[in-house]
Amino acid sequence: MEQAVVEQAVFESVKYSAACQDCGAELECWGVQGLVDGRLRWDVESTCSACGFAVAVCGGDVPVERRDQMLSEHGPARLQVSSAPAKSVAIMRVLRAELGIDLLNAKAVLRRVLDGDYSGTLPEMEYLARTLRESGIAAAATRSQGV
């Protein structure tokens, strides 16, 4: 009997302000990027202290400015692979499929991955690492200490 491997969800969050759509006052927002059940998702919860307006929006892609904020506040995570160069084609296949890039860009990203220079948010890098591991490639999402 095979045992299923249950992988933990990975989250990173940011707090930011926006204008309340009901009264225009400053709205406190919490954005969370998560890797849940094998999928990346972006969720936002907001509450207005002035009028009580509250909203939760789940799913979707992380906005560029919030992604930049997460990278600034938490530091980038890196995708690391410890596979032999013979696995380069398999790595590029995963990168092309998951990132939606062409062969030329996949080669460039592969170089960055092999050099330890490919980075993003922790949920993004863990997503790629898990996909690579499913393809038989030893991969991990890491973050430097001191961030």
Point out poorly predicted stretches.
Answer: none
How many domain units? 2
Question: On the 0-100 scale, what is the average pLDDT?
Answer: 90
The number of E-state strands comes to 7
The number of helical elements comes to 4
Helix content: 25-40%
In CATH, the topology of the largest domain is named Ribosomal Protein L30, Chain: A
- Going by CATH, the architecture of the largest domain would be 2-Layer Sandwich
- Which strand order spans the largest sheet, edge to edge or round the barrel? 1-2-3-4
CATH superfamily of the largest domain: Ribosomal protein L7/L12, C-terminal domain/Adaptor protein ClpS
Structural class designation: alpha+beta
Any idea of the CATH class of the largest domain?
A: Alpha Beta
Strand content: 25-35%
Major sheet: 4 strands, antiparallel
Series of H and E elements: EEEEHEHHEHE
Brief synopsis:
The protein has 147 residues and is α+β, with helices and mostly antiparallel strands. The protein is built from four helices and seven strands, in the order ββββαβααβαβ. The N and C termini lie far apart (42 Å).
Please provide a written account of the structure.
The structure is a single chain. With 147 residues, this protein is an alpha+beta fold. It folds into two domains: 10-74; 77-142, Ribosomal Protein L30, Chain: A (2-Layer Sandwich). 33% of the residues lie in helices and 31% in strands. The chain has four helices and seven strands. It has helices spanning 64-74, 88-99, 103-114, 122-134; strands at residues 10-19, 26-36, 39-48, 54-57, 77-81, 119-120, 139-142. The strands form two sheets. It has a four-stranded antiparallel sheet. It has a three-stranded antiparallel sheet with strand order 6-5-7. A hairpin with a 5-residue loop joins strand 3 (39-48) and strand 4 (54-57). The chain is elongated and about 60 Å long. The N and C termini lie far apart (42 Å).
